[in-house]
Amino acid sequence: MLFYYIQMNGLNSLREIGEEISASTISYYNDRADGFALFLLITMILGIAFLVLTSFLIIPKIFNVNRTNMKVLSLFGYIPPEEVEELADRCEHYIQVYLDEIAARRNYSYIGSNAL
């Protein structure tokens, strides 16, 4: 019934124009959404390809480093425990001497800066 009054009052042409405008607007935004979906798809494919490529390049290096670490750690099995303890004591002594020297330099610099 409403459609009959629209046709009789001459508003049918306005309705048709409104339908055309809305259809063109909808198709415009659908095209933009399709373009965005394509961009998203391309970006995802490139990201996954980059991830796979870097994985193939990095994983062998990680296993190589791990293998080298195991070889180095196995060498420590040949060192007697007494020598390891002696080396640890020497390292602790060196660290303590080094820290004392740093503290002495720091105190000397404070004394020198007060004289100015």
Shape: elongated
What distance lies between the first and last C-alpha atoms, to the nearest angstrom?
Answer: 102 Å
Radius of gyration: 39 Å
**Assembly state of the chains shown:** single chain
Helix content: over 70%
**Biggest beta-sheet profile:** none
How would you spell out the order of helices and strands?
A: HHH
Overall pLDDT, averaged? 84
**Strand residues, percent:** under 5%
The counted number of beta strands is 0
Number of helical segments? 3
- How many domains, in number, for the residues? 2
Structural class: mainly alpha
Uncertain runs are none
Strand and helix map with partners:
Layout (H helix, E strand, L loop, with lengths): L1 H7 L3 H64 L5 H35 L1
Task: Name the features.
116 residues; elongated; 3 helices; single chain; mainly alpha
Task: Describe this protein's structure.
- The chain is an all-alpha fold and about 120 residues long.
- The chain folds into 2 domains: about 1-80; about 80-115.
- It is about 90% helix and about 0% strand.
- The termini are far apart.
What does this entry show, briefly?
The protein is an all-alpha fold. It has helices spanning 2-8, 12-75, 81-115.
